[in-house]
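Re: the multi-chain job from yesterday

Posting the exact lines I submitted so nobody has to dig through the queue logs.
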Amino acid sequence: MHEFSIVSALIEQCEQLALEHQAKGIARVAVKIGALSGVEPQLVKTAFDTFREDGMCKGAELEMDVAPLELDCKACGAHSIPDEIAYLCPVCQSRDIKVSGGEEMLLMQLELIYD
Ligand SMILES: [Zn+2]
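And the result, structure tokens for all chains:
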């Protein structure tokens, strides 16, 4: 499953950061999931619960935020967050747009546990 490899990489990233900061454990992991990332929050939660079992993320709380699709229009310069997923500028209807947000899953915050 797509989510499992993403979460596995996320946990690795968290553990790496915890090690770098000489932390004892991880209390909280906050991620942002792009509306277009194709990642299902419920599956992320399930995968997180599965993978954290014996690592530093054991006992960590997972917080998820969905990041909306963001577009930059190359025709009129508008930056917009459309209500629905459409590759179209809502201001001038141009299709000459660049997606500037909402496509990835990002680690936003990590709360570490020290002695
Ligand atoms: Zn436009």
